[in-house]
């Protein structure tokens, strides 16, 4: 059975697609999600073989959502949308397939056969997620999107991954690896820290092998010895 996760902000669409997948006898539904935050958590916890992913969702669309998934957790992707004009972009993002709403039984069957062939051959998902421009952060029961340009640094701790701006700290479901590899601004300076190179205001040497970075708002960010050489290269320090 193919493990499938459905992500769509419309309840009736989720229910219809879930029913179609169940009727095919080929799928186990590991979850249904209404938004990107739920989807991220579900991908991590359920490890689906395939995502049936809506493109038009509030705040974070389907293309942006792919940029938030760790490469090691990336499933095959089937975009599901009512907008035919997104077909080209869907395939440019290397999606396995593209389904138009309302999804027909016959069209889903062709997608299923294609997916089964890839899985049987041991194929790997090749979705090429776009660069992250905004980072989804948890605020109460909602979601705050922070522009990557406004981030001063990111730190990880036992309580999670925290995005730090001049206005405060925000918790995100994204990992340091995703934030480092999917953004141009954030660079690794420590096992538990990423720093925005454009937000560095001052570079302080406490000794020849120790560097501390100060951000524009006056916060300090450590640089570990392991990452000091590459930070020197990025910051043109000799």
Chart the SSEs and their pairings:
Elements: E1 2-7, H1 11-24, E2 27-33, H2 36-46, E3 50-54, H3 62-66, E4 76-81, H4 87-92, E5 97-100, H5 105-120, E6 134-139, E7 142-147, E8 151-157, E9 160-165, E10 168-172, H6 176-181, E11 186-190, E12 193-196, E13 200-207, E14 210-215, E15 220-223, H7 228-235
Parallel strand pairs: 1-2, 1-3, 3-4, 4-5
Antiparallel strand pairs: 6-7, 6-10, 8-9, 8-12, 9-10, 11-12, 13-14, 14-15
- CATH C-level category of the largest domain: Alpha Beta
The DSSP helix count reads 7
Order of helices and strands: EHEHEHEHEHEEEEEHEEEEEH
- Going by helix content, strand content and strand pairing, the class is alpha/beta
- Write out the strand line-up for the largest beta sheet, numbering strands in chain order: 7-6-10-9-8-12-11
Shape: elongated
The share of residues in helices is: 25-40%
Q: CATH H-level name of the largest domain... which superfamily?
A: Response regulator
The poorly predicted ranges are none
Q: Major beta sheet, specifics? A: 7 strands, antiparallel
Mean pLDDT across all residues, rounded?
89
CATH-derived architecture of the largest domain: 3-Layer(aba) Sandwich
First CA to last CA: what distance? 57 Å
The CATH topology annotation of the largest domain reads as Rossmann fold
Strand content bin = 35-45%
Number of strands: 15
Q: What is the count of distinct domains?
A: 2
